[in-house]
Structures are given as C-alpha cells and as structure tokens.
Amino acid sequence: MDEATPEVSRGRGISPIWIIPLVALALGIWMVIYTLMREGPDVEIRFSTAEGLEEGKTKVKYRNVQVGVVEAVSLSDDREGVLAQVKLDREVTDMLREDTRFWVVTARLGAGSVSGLDTLLSGAYIEMSPGHGRTGVREFVALERPPLTPRGTQGLRLTLVSEEAPSVSTGDSVLYKGYEVGRVESTEFDPQRQQMRHSLFIDAPFHTLVNSSVRFWDVSGVSVTAGANGIDLRVGSLDTVFFGGVTFGIPPGLPAGEAVQDEAEFRLYPSFEAAIDNPYKHGEYFVISFTQSLRGLLPGAPVEYRGIPLGRVERVMLRELVAHGQGGDGRFGSGAAIPVLIYLEPGRLGMPDSADSIDTLDHIIVNGIANGMRATLASGNLVTGNKYISIDYFPDAEPTPPGEFVGYTTIPTVPGGFARIEQQLYALLDKFNQLPLGETVAGANEALAGISTTLESLRVVLDDEKLQALAGRLDRVLDELQTALAGFSPDSAIYRNLSASLADLDRMVQHLEAFSRTIATQPNAAVFGADIPADPVPEARPR
Amino acid sequence: MNGLAATAAGRHLAVCHVCFKLASADGHHCPRCGAPLHLRKPRSLQRTLALLLTATILYIPANVYPIMITDQLGAPAEESTILGGVILLIELGSAPIAAVIFIASVMVPLGKLIALYYLVWSVGRGHLTKQRQRTAMYRATEFIGKWSMVDVFVVAILVSLVHLTGVLVIRPGIAAVSFAGVVIVTMLAAESFDPRLIWDRLERKHG
Predict the structure, then answer these.
(1) Residue B54: exposed, middle, or buried by beta-carbon count in 10 A (0-12, 13-18, 19+)?
(2) B9–A3 CB contact, under 8 Å
(3) What would the mean pLDDT of B32-58 be, rounded to a whole number?
(4) Which of A28, A482, B30, B178 has the largest CB neighbor count within 10 A?
C-alpha cells in the first residue's frame, strides 16, 4: 500500500501559469480604464422636432469632426419638444458652455446657396458651435436654423428696426456700395413694440464703415416710386432682386458719426429716398389749413420754399379737426378748412441741426407771415396727380396774423396750383360770356351774302362765247410754233448740214494747229517747206 | 485491491507525456526520450484554474464589445455585439440561425467554463461521487471545444470576403479577438486538466 500509493505531487508554490490570467486581468482593467477615460459628457439637447435625428446614428460634429453621437431621442415632459441624449467625446467637454449652440444640418436651399448636400446620403447631423460662457452646462436648446455667422467671427452685430415688414429676410446680404459686407441673421416681429427687428452681422473689417450717422435702407426687389418728383424705378443687383438685401451709407452732406457699439440699433428705411430724406434730427411741426381739395397730397409730400425742400407733409389732421369741431367753437359742419400737419427741418435751410435753430425757424415763419409768406397747394406731377406744398411770399396777400391749431402755429394759405388756374379760367369764361356774340354773327352773315353776289357775276363773265373762241385760237398758235421748232430736230436737213459744216471746221482747225507748231520750231518752213526727219531705227550694239 | 494493483500509478509507473513510454516514476526523466516524467500533470488544477480565470476575464469584452463593425456607404459605422446579433436575427425572424449562434457563441463557451470550474472545484475538494458523470463532462468539454470557434470563423470570412472599400466594409471588433482568446484559453484549460485526478482520490480511499 505504501509503495503502491500514487504520489500525487501537489505542486507547492505558485505556478508561473498565473501570469496569463494576470495579464488578461491587467488588459481588461486597462480597457475599462481606457473606456472610462474616453467617456465624454452626456448632454441633453432640446429640439422642436426629431426630424433627421436617429438614435445611435446621428452624429454630433464640430468643424466636420465627429465629437459625439445621439444615443436616445425622446419626447420632452411637456410634449412640446424632443430631447436628444447625446454622448460627446471627452475632448469637447471644455467647449460645453452656457452659450454653446447646437443645430441640425440638413440639405438646405437658401438664399443664393445650397448647403449640406452631403447630408442627403449620410443623413442629418448635429453641428456644434462652442461657446465662451459658464462651463459645466449639460442641457441645451438647439437652434431652429443654422446661425449664419460662426461664433468668434470678427465683426459687428447690429439691430435694424422697421415699422413694416420689408422684403428683407434671414440670409439676405448687407451691401455697402454694392459690395457684400455682411448678412441678415434673423428677422422677427416684436408684437409689443409693433416693429420688425432684424439682426445684422457686418464682417470685419467692414464694421468700421458703420458709424452713428449711417442709414440703412432696403434694396430688395424692384422699387417703383411715383411721387411729386416723378416716377422713380430702382433695380438693385440681380441677387438683391431675387433674394432681397439691405444696404447702408451716410446721407450726402452729413459728417461721419462716431463708432457704434455692438448690438447698436438703427432704423431700416424702406428706400434710399426715405433714408436720405430724414437726415436731420431737429424739426418743428406747423399746420396749414386748406379749403381746396387735398386729393394727391400724400403724407411725405415735400414742403418747398421756391423749390427748395424745407420739410414734408406729416398727415392730414382730420381727427383733430373733428375733435376741435365737437369742442363747441361752432366750426364743425361749417366747411372749415382742413388742417394739414407739416414738419419743417431748419437743417435743410443750411442752419445748424440743433434746438436753437428751431427757435430761429419759428422767428422766420412768424416774421415771414407778416411780410406776406403764404402756403399754396401746388401740383408736382400732372401724371400722377401728386401735390406738394409750396411756401412763398405773396406781397399782395391780405395781411393775416399767424394762427394756432391744437398747439401748432398755422401758416395762412392762398389758393394755389389748379385752384388758382381754375379761378383765372372762370374769370376768362366770364369775360367771354359778356362778349356781343349775337351781333358779330349777324354781321358775318351779311358779309357772306356779299361774297356770294360777287362770285355770281364772275361766273357770268367766264360763260361769255368770245372767251371760249379765244381759247381755240391760242391752241392753233401753239401748234404752229411746234412745227417751226421741229425743223431743228436731229432728223431735219438743216441739222445734218450744220453738222457737216462743223466737222469741216474741226478738220481745218487741226491742220492749222499742225502748221502753227511747225512755224514755231522752223519759222522758215513757210517759205522752204519743212524737212521731216526720218523715223529713228534702233542700231545693233557696237562690238 | 485488484483495481489498485492494476493501475500503473499503483506500480509507481508514470507515462511519458511525449513518447508515452511507461517508466518508473522514480526517474525524473523518460529513459527513452528524456522528457520530464510525472505521475500526473504537474500543478494541473492550478494551471486549469489560472487559464479558466483568463478565459472568464476575456469572456467579458467578448460580449460587451462589438464583434463586427460594418461600414456602409452613407450610413454611420454599425457595431454589432454577439448578443446584439442574436437579438437582431430574432427580430428579423431567423430564429433557427439565432439559436445556432446563441448556442455556439454564448451557451457553449459558458457551459465549458462552468463545467471546468466544477471539475476543478470537485477535484480540489476531493469529491468521491459521480466520477463517471464528471469524466463524461470532461470528455464532452474537450470534444465541443473546437466547435465554439464558429463565430470567429464567420467574422474572419466576412471580413475577408466583404471588402468593397467605400461601399461596404466589415471590420472585426475587439470582441472577435477576445472571443478567440476565450475559446483558445478554454481549450488549453481543458487540456491542462488531468482527468485522472477525478479517480485518484477514490482509488486512494479504496486503497
């Protein structure tokens, strides 16, 4: 038994085989650590729709480098949006700031450009734009559409405000003298202020072109304006015709202002005219009351002094007139003159654009009225029927003191334009009516009867027989004259004889000419006869 | 008694691992080929256990990581794990294929590991019962070992066959290597286990 017992040697000590599981374990741990090290942050992005988002497939990219992937897409708690759980790479942790922006990139047909065509094949992806704000943010709200200007672009962001929606939309160009210097980033309507607000971005270095005195105006499409100055047609570049655009510039005559801050606010004028029309900040309202038709007088119509624009028509003050009439001063319903509010700017007269000039203007107007300054309604354009207000001096006008209407100084009027012509025409017609037309016509009738008698006697003379015979004789005389002249025709004998005589004469003259040439060289030839030299014969060359 | 006397070990004879010559265990080397001579595989249980642990560690990445990565034109790279593939096949309605893959790639390696753990544990504790079943289990484990490479072969064939650069490319994942590792290490573990140990204790007891 002792000998027969197999000795199962239980190897004491550690077998080197344990290195294998240790290596495997080390590798496993390293893999886990590596994965954990690579593990990036999980963020939650809120979208309005999950269009183009696919769980586990949609990538998150930054500058076209994949930095993450969408892991799950679910409805938000309020069912108003979509929450995408996104696993991002570790490297971009630092880019996740308060103002980091995300948006979905899909194929887009935009203003004059097509973008994201590659996403047609690969599917949409989420683009990230790193921020600069507070770190540690893990929840974001995606943008509805891609921002037009990458964050960090040098330039200037401005806000344009306009009362009505011009044809400017997101993505439109901002031009300076026709060159693109920026673009419209967003357009929205502010219901509280009842304004359209456009966000603009001007690229560096062009942002220095913007200062406090520039004006922005809409150059979209084709603008046709029919005003007191005629019809104006304005067509921008083809791009702006189709897609719209905004341009800016300093109105002529205005000095450049100081530099503006980021997010500065400007007004957006509907047209170039509107933009340059209001270069002055100070002005004063006046009222002019007209008793004639105001048809064709539109708000914005010019107010001119001898052709120089002073200001513009603001509006017709019908409301105030009605309120005034109901106030009980007896003017309501009595055909009172219609007050028109005008806005005059002293800057247009070369005065400094300041509050002091307003006082000066007031003074000029009051003084002027005393010296016969009156306003008239004039026709600016006969085709369109637009009218303007002309201010001039009428020394023969009845002296009227300056009036006052709801707090505004009123400038007295004289009838002008068509009203004036109408008046003169009426006067002319009156005079015409007073003419003794009946007597004149009777006299003319008598004269006509006399002419008729004269014509009758003339006919009697012409019908006389002698006069008829005279015509026949005259005819015969003419026949004879014709026969006589026929004797000299090229076929007649006289003509042939004459022709032969002339040929003889010609020959004789030729002979005479030859003779006279001979006499000139040999005077003695008349006596001895001329010796005619023999024809020259060419000789052979001497040897 | 008889049985005992009938074993080679009982007569203190050891078989050479290399040339299978039966020689006296007293000599440390085979008199014929000179290879080291042992009555039983040296440190068999320890070796088997170490390899089993390695296989267990490798089994984790083999299932967690993707075994196959498909790059398709216009689509992001698709990574499929073994279990993911099984689930996908079930969803696609190919339950039989899914079953084959599940059995070959999940059940068999796992079963082998569990079986070997059990054998090592039972031998280590010196259990005296069910020797026949345990031997049968060992034999089955050894036999089935070569068949669990199916997955690795599938991946290897797909990778070499489907290689349309830019349109469709299949790449092996980390799990493919890990899985191959699991299979190989399990086979080595089964190899290093000495089934004679199952009987040794019993024989000693009877003796």
Answers:
(1) buried
(2) no
(3) 83
(4) B178
Query: H helices within A39-168, ranges in order?
Result: 119-122
| Structure token pair of residue A233 | 């047609």
From residue A72, alpha-carbon distances to A43, A44, A92, B72 in Å are 11, 10, 19, 22
Decide if B27 touches A, using CB distance below 8 A: no
User: Which residue from A18, A25, A20 is spatially nearest to B59, judged by alpha carbons?
Assistant: A25
pLDDT-based confidence at residue B3 (cuts at 50, 70, 90): very low
Cis, peptide link before residue A205, omega less than 30° from 0: yes
Mean residue pLDDT of chain A comes to 80
Q: What is the pLDDT of residue A504?
A: 93
pLDDT per residue over A368-390, tens digit each? 888 888 888 887 777 777 888 88
Q: Name the most confidently modeled range: A300-304, A325-329, A349-353, B1-5.
A: A300-304
**Mutate: best of A15, A27, A61, partner B, most B CBs <10 A:** A15
| Helices of type H across chain B | 2-6, 44-64, 82-91, 95-102, 108-125, 131-144, 150-161, 174-192, 196-206
Q: Is the dihedral of CA B17, B18, B20, B22 positive or negative?
A: negative
**Is there a contact between A142 and A157 (Cβ–Cβ < 8 Å)?**
no
Tens of pLDDT, residues A127-157: 888 878 888 888 888 888 777 666 667 788 8
In three-state form (DSSP H/G/I as H, E/B as E, the rest C), the secondary structure along A5-68 is CCCCCCCCCCCHHHHHHHHHHHHHHHHHHHHHHHCCCEEEEEECCCCCCCCCCCEEEECCEEEE
Inter-chain residue contact A6 with B12, CB threshold 8 Å: yes
Q: What secondary structure, in 3-state letters, does A329-361 show?
A: CCCCCCCCCEEEEEEECHHHHCCCCCHHHHHHH
